[in-house]
Amino acid sequence: MEYRLGNSKWVHQRGETVELVCPNCNNKVNFGVFSNFERRLAVKPTLLDTQTVYFLVCPKCASVYTVEEARGKAFQKGEKLSIGNFDLKSLKEFKSEV
Question: Would you state the pLDDT for residue 2?
Fold first, then answer.
């Protein structure tokens, strides 16, 4: 199984969330927030599609979750409460088209 967290080699640490409950281990923890970039060529009017991928890691069980890009950007700007328990989403399995 392979999960896409982006395709940049650089992973940037963005800080820690307020105390949240991990959906996997049910512990109250401060998730570590990280980001990197995903770039892909598309046949859309825009030739290059880019987005920042934000992901959170539970310090107790090492489960990895993602959040919407808008939530991650708000967190990065200093809005600690922009990420809550209901924003955590499971990573989707990456299926290569090759």
Answer: 44
Dihedral (Cα; 18, 74, 78, 38), 10-degree rounding:
90
Q: Could you report the per-residue pLDDT of 35-70, keeping only the tens digit for each? A: 886 555 555 565 555 677 888 999 999 999 999 989
61-93: pLDDT as tens digits: 999 999 998 999 999 899 999 999 999 998 776
Beta strands in the chain, from DSSP E residues, in sequence order: 12-16, 20-21, 28-29, 32-41, 48-57, 64-67, 89-90
Question: CA-CA distance, 12 to 2, in Å (whole number)?
Answer: 20
Amino acid at 80: K
Tell me, what DSSP letter sits at residue 81? G
pTM here is 0.72
Q: What's the DSSP call for residue 93?
A: B
Query: What residue type is 91 in one-letter code?
Result: L
